[in-house]
Design a protein that fits this description.
The chain is built from one helix and two strands. By secondary structure, the protein is mostly helical. It has one domain. The longest helix is centred in the C-terminal third of the chain and has 32 residues. The model has no long low-confidence stretch (mean pLDDT 93). Zinc ion binds next to loops.
């Protein structure tokens, strides 16, 4: 257990909380985790979009000249 100081409001709190109890600012470690999660979601979204596009290309009727 270690205490860190909030970057936003300057209050000390336990690092294991991940977020500042007074202003909800994430710790640098938590912020990194959040960013990694967002990146993962974004990659999944791109992959899903690519699969969807490929399916649409295969399924859509091609009667347009
Ligand atoms: Zn704070």
């Amino acid at each position: 257990m270690s205490e860190i100081t909030c970057r936003h409001c300057g209050r000390p709190f336990d690092e294991s909380l991940n977020y500042c109890p007074s202003c909800r600012t994430p710790t640098p470690a938590q912020q990194e985790k959040d960013l990694a999660r967002v990146k993962k979601k974004f990659i999944l979204f791109i992959v899903a979009l690519a699969i969807f596009s490929a399916m649409m290309i295969l399924w859509l009727p091609r009667d347009i000249p």
